[in-house]
Every structure is written in structure tokens, then in C-alpha cells.
Amino acid sequence: MPRSADRVLEIGGRRLPFLRWSFVRMLVGIGRLTKEWQVGDGREAALADYVEANARPGDLDDAIRVVDEFCYRHSFMMNVGDEKGEILDRAIARAKPELVLELGTYCGYSGLRMVRAMPAGCRLVSVEFNPDNAAIARRVWAHAGVADRATVVVGTLGDGGRTAAALEAEHGVTPGSVGAVFIDHAKDAYVPDLELIIARDWLRDGAVVVADNIKFPGAPDYLELMRAAEGHAWRTTEHATHAEYQTLIKDLVLESEYHPGDA
């Protein structure tokens, strides 16, 4: 399939990912992607290069625009995307957090969106498994002018407590400090990582937790957990949407408000 197929995006008004070679290449490398969180063809580093070359320095809105442009015109990426990104934007704006915790930085796109939606004085702390992705996100954030509000911590909450301890000791993640969480990393880690967050009492009453990819590729345990807890510790809105940068594959985003006193 020719590389020019990346530019064929729509049939009958629907954006179809299967017409894009970069999407097919991502599927071919899915084993690497789910282990290392990079496709393996250099597209993540290319995204940072593209942002630095095409977005106005210090312009957050333009950085977001340029990332979306890259994902539509050049290489399909697994970040939250523009459609689901608007759900995330609204959730962060409503929560009015002082501290946002993200699980799964990838290349920093969702971080850009959250910083834009955060109130003045709020900070983002993002946990990323892959150090190469963390370095890419730092480049993107620095170019957008938000490096003073967004920090990447290389690690995982499933490492026996090392990353959690670092978040508490070095990044101000303390009991009741977190007003919003965005979960977009390994799908089988959604439930154990949320349970760790609750066990360490990081969430304030009324905190909002947004979880991506509940339908595709799917996090059924997390969906079951939130549905079972509805009306108790959690109040959840289920947003029917589409997987990133296309309109063929359906997805589900959960936006859950935490009220421990109702448990």
C-alpha cells in the first residue's frame, strides 16, 4: 500500500483508519506496542520533530493543533485524539483540580489538553512507563511552553511501590491532593492502579477520574467495577464516542466522580 494512502481519510463522510498505511503498520507492531508503548517505526520521535518544526513556540493551542495535524496527515497515533480529548477537556474544567495525575503520558498530547483546561496554579504529574516516550513528551511540552506546569515521572504504579513513593516524596501527591486523574495506559492496570490510588488516599472528595479505551481495545474489569460502585463511592457518566482519529471504531470513555462518604 503506498504511503500516499495515509492521506485518504474519508468515504461517505466517515473517517476510516484502515485506509491508512500508518494504521496498518501499527497493527502489525501491536505486540511491541503493548509491551514497549512505541510502534517501532519512529513515529513518536517524528511527532516531536514535527511539533518543534511547525508549531509556534510557546503557543499551547497551536501545539495541540499541530499534533492533531500530524496524526491525521502523517502517522496514526494512539493518544486520546481530538474527539475524546474534548470529553477530557470538559471533565478537567469542571473538576477545577489543584493537582492532576495522569497514568500513561505517551507523547504528551493529553497532557497538553489537560494543562489548557486546568485552572491557574494547577499542576500535572504524569506517569509514563517508557523513558523514550517521557523524553518526547518533555520536548513537546517545552516547545508548547508548559514545562513549568507538567512533569513526567518515569515508572509505573505496579512496580511494588517505588513510583508511588516517589510521587509522594518528590511531586506533592499526598492524601487528598489529587482532584483529577486521567487513565490511559495498560488496560489490565486500570483497576489495580485505581485501587492503589484509593488505598493511598490521594483523591479528594469530588475528584474526577477519566478512563479512556473502555470499549476499544477494552477495559471490561474497570467498566464492571464502576458500574457496581455506581451510587456508592462513584458517580459515573459513560460517554459513547470513537477510537482516536477515525469514526469507524466505537469506544467508551468513563468519567467518574469520587464520593468516598457514600461508600
Summarize it:
It is built from 11 helices and 9 strands. By secondary structure, the chain is α/β, with parallel strands linked by helices.
Structure report:
The chain has a domain at about 80-260: Rossmann fold (3-Layer(aba) Sandwich). The radius of gyration is 18 Å and the shape is globular. The chain is an alpha/beta fold and about 260 residues long. It has helices spanning about 20-30, 30-35, 45-55, 60-75, 80-95, 110-115, 130-145, 160-170, 190-200, 215-220, 220-230; strands at about 10, 15, 100-105, 125-130, 150-155, 180-185, 205-210, 235-240, 250-260. Helix 3 packs across helix 4, helix 3 packs parallel to helix 7 (about 130-145) and helix 4 packs antiparallel against helix 6. A seven-stranded mixed beta sheet has the order 5-4-3-6-7-9-8, with helices on both faces. A two-stranded antiparallel ribbon has the order 1-2.
The class by helix and strand makeup works out as alpha/beta
Major sheet description: 7 strands, mixed
For this structure, what is the CATH homologous superfamily of the domain at 81-262?
A: Vaccinia Virus protein VP39
Q: What is the CATH class of the domain at 81-262?
A: Alpha Beta
Rg, Å, rounded: 18 Å
Keywords: Methyltransferase, S-adenosyl-L-methionine, Transferase
InterPro entries: SAM-dependent_MTases_sf, SAM_O-MeTrfase
Organism: Paraconexibacter antarcticus
Protein name: O-methyltransferase
